[in-house]
Amino acid sequence: MRNLGQFLDTYARLHGTHIAYEMKRGFRAEKLSFTDVYALALKTSTFLHSRGLTKGDTVVIWAPNMPEYAILYYACWLLGIVAVPIDIRTTTETRQMFVAAARCKLGFKSKAIAGDLSPDAIPTYHLEDLIELVRPLPELKELPDVAADDLAEIAFTSGTTGTPKGVRLTHHNFLTNVSALCQTFPFKQEYRTLSLLPLSHAFEQVVDMLAVFQVGSTVTYLERINQVTIMNALRRHGITTAFVVPQFLQLLMTGIEREVEKSGARRIWSALQRIAPFLPMRVRRAMFYPFRQRLGTHLQFFCCGSAPLNNKLARKWEHLGIAIYEGYGATETTAVLTLNTPSAKHPGSVGKALPGARIEIDPATHEIIAQGPNISPGYFQDMPKTQQVFSHGWYRTGDIGRLDAEGYLYITGREVSRIVLPGGEKVYPEDIEKRFNAHPLVRESCVIGVKREEGERVHAAIITRYPQKLNEIVRQVNQGLSSHEQVLEWSLWHHDDFPRTPILKIDRAKVANAIEKRGETPAAVQLAESDTLRSLIARSKKIPAAQIKETDVLTTDLALDSLQRVELLSLIEQDLGVAVAEPAISEHTTVAQLRELIQNAEAIPPDLPFHALNYAPFIVRLRVLLQTLLVFPLHALFVPLEVSGQENLASLELPAIFYFNHMGIMDAVCALRALPLAIRRKLVIAATQDLWHEWRRPFVEFWGGGFPFDTRHNIKASLELTGEFLDNGFSVLIAPEGGISKDGTLQPFKAGTGFIATHMHAQVVPIKIDPAYRSIFPPMNELIFENLPKKRKRIWVRIGQPMAFSNQTSIEQATQKIRQAMIEL
């Protein structure tokens, strides 16, 4: 194939209705098949064409990862338009310089990012609106002839080398790199990948967008990326792999080890880590199963690149039975140049060159140089730099390395970060950092050169849980270093992590600046909660931020109800990157106290207490069988039913949400009996906390397929769980009154009724049970015998028309409409 448009056509047709992309927005996951992606890309091409864009024009994209990002890329490539992606953390000045240099004619930005793309008024659209924007349009039929050597992208990057530059990448660069990667690594269609690195970078485009598209794997995108959302996604979406930088591996491992500490299992953890190297991977996975539960049961491996990998960290993951495959490349090499694979792996190396690529070490400088069809033709509008870096078909990487006898590449340093001592000796910080990071008491280190009167000196900033042993740590590491590499200055880094560049490499400049200003915290690691928190509260409450005082109580002074608190906690998690446990907020919590909770936030909100096994396919089939053969006949002995309205379900789109009026104990059985088997085969019941304790819990969970819906202390987790069931194809049965009616009349509905209807993207069906049911089964009592039926009586159950609500409908209006529909039954 000659271009990326043909690539899209070929593999979209091959994989058809298989899911290509999914993304959880709010409480539900949106899914797009390969066929959907192709059709939407063609429609987006129509949109771009209608805006006057033609082959060779440029479109700027400034947004976090989402399915629309990939669709827009494909649309541009179908038309021969050049994509200009910009990292979301790029400064205003640099971003505007990129847009002006590339002469972009159209822009797409995210609603979540403040600021304008450019001072020049280029037409700009919100990327989140792309699908709705193009869905009514026809698919573009006539596409231009796009050649292999035509430009596909200008990848602007400043990297660690200072001056920003635009790397030119052609269709041929991408196609050859993806083809070589898929030849080398055994990707499988059944893999499920979690997208964590920015789609504005070539690495993510090649591996998570193109390579997995070629093999037909599903990619999951996250609305926000932090430890909580990553852990949840790994488990809930059955993720098998992710392409990451070392920082993500450290982030997740820190979370696991924190849980180990909290559970008091440190000794067991350490003992298993010592045993693991002598056992097969499958045995390791089984042995560490209790510790891996938060990661899900499907995770198999990580591919890691972009920054040096701490070997000690890699071994920890391997001990858990999760393989780590390290690779190497640069934007100029269209991302991937070398890679370790399951069949060819040397720990400590970054693997062998991909097919078609050639790597050599410059004998004079030990610099790594590369040649191949994946090498960029040069920099955009910068001939001097192109001639300096690209010479006679070879790309000079700026990295120092060596090749072993088998062709495995080892990175030993980078020219730009080297320290030149007063005597002329050169020190490569990466070498020393590897020694520090291998020390059992060191979590991570950053080695820099600090300027003194006599010249540069080697300084190590160290993150450790044992600050009292810092001097001893340095002494032990120095014993293994050559005389010119000796660390003469060191300091304790008082934060959980070092400041990072947009691609999550340690920002050495900011570390150096912080060390020079002893006692000052680098701006990059400070959370500017002051204005941000007030802004988030203002967004939740829809009031000016200036009205919010530190002494305001959230529930009384600001009148934040439970659902507004859920929204606020979601915004805090998204914008500040921390998760505040919902139960930590009481009716007396002030703004100042919430700020303190944010500053100290570490704990992940507790999961709701339920056994996932009760919703496994074979248990669901058993439950439906037992309900049909045992529970329903016993219930019918006392409650003969007259069911009407089943014809309303003929055109119902499943999964759906069924609401019923709460009349007494076991009244949900009336609703279950009224529903067809096709619906009951995959249906769960939202059970309040009153039903979720003592002897009732196993009955509700196993026999009824109930799940906990805690409206008092953990409504956010309850809504998340409801959305997860719907995503997995389960319809949900809910009592909207929140409790049993005392006199049989319909009580006011909880606000959550309308919230679920407008935010879960599922049709709503009212089911009304005859109030006379109360005379058969009384309201719930603590003693078991008091819950037995009192008499036999025929009652009616009526099923209403399905209703649909958009998220533009107000919660109050949706709640009223659903209640009115119930009244009219």
Keywords summarizing the entry:
single chain, ACP-like_sf, acyltransferase activity, Rossmann fold, alpha/beta, 825 residues, Non-ribosomal Peptide Synthetase Peptidyl Carrier Protein, Chain A, GMP Synthetase, Chain A, domain 3, 7-stranded mixed sheet
Give a concise summary.
The protein has 825 residues and is α/β, with parallel strands linked by helices. One of its GO terms (molecular function) is medium-chain fatty acid-CoA ligase activity.
Q: What's the quaternary structure here?
A: single chain
Q: Hey, roughly how much beta strand do the residues contain?
A: 15-25%
Mean pLDDT: 85
**Spatial strand order of the main sheet:** 2-1-10-9-11-12-13-14-15
Form type: globular
CATH topology of the domain at 612-824: Glycerol-3-phosphate (1)-acyltransferase
Number of strands: 33
What's the Cα radius of gyration? 30 Å
Protein name: AMP-binding protein
Pfam families: Acyltransferase, AMP-binding, AMP-binding_C_3, PP-binding
GO molecular function, one term: acyltransferase activity
Family: Belongs to the ATP-dependent AMP-binding enzyme family.
Task: Provide structural commentary.
It is globular, with a radius of gyration of 30 Å. Among the domains are: 1-170, ANL, N-terminal domain (Rossmann fold, 3-Layer(aba) Sandwich); 418-524, GMP Synthetase, Chain A, domain 3; 529-599, ACP-like (Non-ribosomal Peptide Synthetase Peptidyl Carrier Protein, Chain A), CATH 1.10.1200; 612-824, Glycerol-3-phosphate (1)-acyltransferase (3-Layer(aba) Sandwich), CATH 3.40.1130. The chain is α/β, with parallel strands linked by helices and 825 residues long. Strands 2-1-10-9-11-12-13-14-15 form a nine-stranded mixed sheet, with helices on both faces. 43% of the residues are buried. The model is unreliable at 519-530 (pLDDT under 50). α26 (751-759) packs across α27. 36% of the residues lie in helices and 19% in strands. The chain contains 27 helices and 33 strands. GO terms for molecular function: acyltransferase activity; medium-chain fatty acid-CoA ligase activity. Residues 527-602 form the Carrier domain. Keywords: Ligase. InterPro entries: ACP-like_sf, AMP-bd_C_sf, AMP-binding_CS, AMP-dep_synth/lig_dom, ANL_N_sf, Plipid/glycerol_acylTrfase, PP-bd_ACP. Pfam families: Acyltransferase, AMP-binding, AMP-binding_C_3, PP-binding.
